[in-house]
C-alpha cells in the first residue's frame, strides 16, 4: 500500500556549493537544482548531511530556500533539512519550509545529547508538530544514528505515527542497515520510507517503499531515475550494477567530498570543492584517484542544460 | 607558571531553569547566579552541557546573557557557551559575549560531523578567531568527546596556541580522563586548564591548573570554594571527601537531572525540574532516591541570600 500522505520518488540530497568566503554560492546552487530536476530527480532535499546542513545557520538555510523558489524551482519539489539541536530553531526552520510550500521537511533528532529515551524524543517531536501547528506539515524522520547519535526505533515511530498520523509522513533511513529499513517497511506499510543507499532502492520499492533520498543523484540523476522507474523489470540490472559500483567508489572517498570532486571535475565549477570548516575537500591525491577510478567505469554526468 | 591570559577559580556550569512553556525562567536564573557568586563561585559558565546549551537557540542565549548583565551580574564573572554546529552561529554568539565583556567563551567543537581531522578543526577555530576579530576574545576549548564526538588532542591544542597565543586561553577537560588532563597540564604550562570533575581539582591545582568549571557548584559552591582555596593544606581533605561523595551520588542520577532535583528540593522552585525536550527530569522514584541519598550524607545547600 503506497503512502497517500507524502511524496515518492528520487530525491537528490543536494550538495551545497560555496564561494571562497565560505558563503553559499546561490547561483551555482540554483543552476544545479534546475539540472537535477531536468535530468531525472523528482525532488531535492536541501541541507541534509550531504548538503552539510548542520554547518549552515538557520538564517542561511531560510535564505537559500527562498532564493531557489524565487529562481523558479517549484517549492513542492523541495524538502528542507530542519533538524537543529535546539527545538526553537527546528520550529523556526520547519515553519518556514511549510510556509514556503515545501513538500516536506527532513528532520534530524536533536544531536548533541546522547542516550536519550524515547519519551524525551517523542516529546521533542510532539512539541515541534504542535508549535508549527500547520496541517500542511509533512515530516520525514531522519535516521542517521552514526552521526546524530540518536535512533528512531520502531517503538518511537509507532508512537509518533499514532499521535500525528497526518503529519509524520515518512523516514529516511541512512543507517546503511538494510535489516532496519526492511523492518520499517514491514511494520509500517504505507509509511513513506526512503533509503539513503541506492543499492537498496530496488529491494525497497519491491516492499512498497517510497524511494531514495541520497547523495548519488547529484552526479547520476538520470541513471537512478531509470532505476526507480524500471525496478520491477530485468532491464534495471544494468542501472543497479552501475549505481552500486559508483556509490562504492564515491563512498570510499569519503562520500560528500567525493561527490563534490566528481561534480567539480565535470562542471569545472570550483564552488563544489569549497567546504565550510571543519569539513575539508579531498586532498589532491585522493581527488585524482577518485576521478581516475570513476573515469575507468565509463561513467559520465548527464549533459548540462 | 599560572596563566596570565585567562581567568582562574571555581566556575559553576550553570543549570538553566525553565517556565512551564519551556522558555527560560529569567528571574530564577538571575537569583541563582547572584547566590552562586555570593556563596563562593568566582564565576559562572552559562549554557555548557550542564546548562543544556545546545537545547537553546542563539537568540535565547544572547537574551539570557543580556538579562543577567542588566540585573547586575558582573559580565566579567560570566563565561558563555558559544559552540554551535554552524560556524556563523558560533561567531555570532562569541562576538556577542566579547562585546558584552564576558571573561571568556567556552566553545564546543562543531558536533554533528564525526571523524574530523585536525586540519579541519584548526581551520574552524581559525575562522572563528579571525571573524570575531577582537583582541579581547578569550577562548576556552570545550573537550567533552563523549557528547561532541570530537576531540581536542595535544597536537591540535599546540597548533591553536601557536597561531593565537593571545586568544586561546584554556581548556575545560570534561572527558573524565585524568591522564588526559595531566598530559595537557604537563605539555602546556601556563595554559588555563579547568577540570569538569571536582575530585580532580586538588591534583589539577597541584600541577598549576586554573580551576574547575563544573556542575556541582550549583549546589555546593561554598564547600568547593573552600576546597579551591585550601587544596595545598591537609584541612582540604574533608571538603575533597565530601565533594567526591556528592558528585558520585549526583552523577549516577544522571548528573544534570540530579542537580536539578537537589536544587528544586532545597529551593522549592519548580523551574529547576522543567527541562526542554528531548531531555527529561528524573522520574519520581529516581528523584526520591537521590534526595534521600544526598540527605543521608548530611549535606545541605548554603543558605539563601
Describe the protein in words.
Chain A is of the alpha/beta class and 305 residues long. Helices cover 45% and strands 12% of the residues of chain A. In chain A, helix 4 (118-132) runs parallel beside helix 6 (154-163) and helix 9 packs across helix 10 (236-251). The longest helix of chain A has 16 residues, at 236-251. Chain A is globular. The interface between A and B is large, with 41 and 41 residues.
DSSP strand count of chain A: 8
Task: Kindly report the average pLDDT value of chain A.
Answer: 97
Which structural class matches the secondary elements of chain A? Answer: alpha/beta
Give helix and strand order of chain A, one letter per element, not per position. Answer: EHEHEHEHEHHEHEHEHHHH
List the helices and strands and how they pair.
Two copies of one chain form a homodimer.
Chain A lengths: L8 E5 L12 H13 L4 E4 L11 H13 L7 E4 L5 H14 L3 E4 L10 H15 L6 E5 L1 H4 L5 H10 L4 E6 L4 H10 L4 E4 L5 H6 L4 E4 L6 H10 L5 H16 L3 H13 L16 H13 L9
Parallel strand pairs in A: 1-2, 1-8, 2-3, 3-4, 4-5, 5-6, 6-7, 7-8
Helix pairs in contact in A: 2-3, 3-4, 4-6, 9-10, 10-11, 11-12
Gist?
The structure is a homodimer of 305-residue chains. Chain A is α/β, with parallel strands linked by helices and 305 residues long. The first copy, chain A, has helices at residues 26-38, 58-70, 87-100, 118-132, 145-148, 154-163, 178-187, 201-206, 221-230, 236-251, 255-267, 284-296, and strands spanning 9-13, 43-46, 78-81, 104-107, 139-143, 168-173, 192-195, 211-214.
List keywords for this structure.
globular; alpha/beta; homodimer; 305 residues
